[in-house]
Amino acid sequence: MPELPEVEALRGFLEERLTGRAIARALPVAVSVLKTYDPPLSALEGRTFRSVSRHGKFLGMELPEPPGGGGADGGGLWLVVHLARAGWLQWKDSFPAAPPRPGKGPLALRVELAEGGGFDLTEAGTQKRLAVYVVRDPADVPGVARLGPDPLAESFTREEFAGLLRGQRHRIKGLLRDQSVISGIGNAYSDEILHAAKMSPFKVADELTEDEISGLYGAMLATLTAAVERARGLSAAELKAGKRMGLRVHGRAGEPCPVCGDTVRSVSFRDSSLEYCPTCQTGGKPLADRRMSRLLK
């Protein structure tokens, strides 16, 4: 799943290529991808991209009203995209003349530019969670409206972070992933942040000491900032591999920890898993993996 660093890199990638260019056609291919109907997707055609912004894990593409007005759909519009777990964006320098046909393939939506080229939104797998919205304001998207603060915003201080943790009886791993608490962090980077902070993912947020809060805040900023820098300048096609290469524990169960050499372990859940280093994070004690325990009975 693309998280804050990859979505920020996609934002820069798209802003460089879309700003000042107009949409010729916007074609939904998968029925499930479009989550809004008013304004219609066709209202984007003929409009010119002004900017691309990031809202947590959402991409927002601004398309102001064209010169001379826009009729019933006048005023600025936004194309907002959430790539979810298996969605991705593929940049195309050209497209076939014939429009794509709806089917069972990964293609979900195509945006063709007036001067040629554009991008496809694709989604692998059977769980279709890729979401596209056409709205007058990004805040009209429920997921955007619920977002907590951006961890890399200059205004997001250590004190604000501490305030978000106080009174929270949830495990810190889940809290870091909660988009209504802090936006942009998912499964992979929460593992990386907790490893950098030398903290158990099962630790309860409200039980953290002031020193632990400071260490976690610093690890969060350092991990995300480094990941953004690694991703900067990569093409959309290169971002997935770039993310994988920068991860130290996530997705690396069974490999040696790059810090201490202990074996990275995993805890499985219904549809995901977390990875951690026992020596670095849990005092050498493996965390209980209840799912695996049940399978072994």
From TrEMBL:
The UniProt entry, under CDD domains, shows:
BaFpgNei_N_1 (cd08973)
Q: Which cofactor does it need?
A: Zn(2+)
Tell me the protein family, please: Belongs to the FPG family.
The family database entries (Pfam families) matched by this protein are listed as: Fapy_DNA_glyco, H2TH, zf-FPG_IleRS
- Reactions listed under catalytic activity: Hydrolysis of DNA containing ring-opened 7-methylguanine residues, releasing 2,6-diamino-4-hydroxy-5-(N-methyl)formamidopyrimidine
Q: Does the keyword Transmembrane helix apply?
A: no
Q: Which keywords does UniProt give here?
A: DNA damage, DNA repair, DNA-binding, Glycosidase, Hydrolase, Lyase, Metal-binding, Multifunctional enzyme, Zinc, Zinc-finger
- Residue ranges of the TM segments: none
Entry superkingdom: Bacteria
- Which residue ranges does the record assign to the Formamidopyrimidine-DNA glycosylase catalytic domain? 2-130
- Organism field: Streptomyces albiaxialis
* InterPro entries membership: FPG_cat, FPG_N, H2TH_FPG, Ribosomal_uS13-like_H2TH, Znf_DNA_glyclase/AP_lyase, Znf_FPG/IleRS
Domain named FPG-type: residues = 248-282
What is this protein identified as? Answer: Fpg/Nei family DNA glycosylase
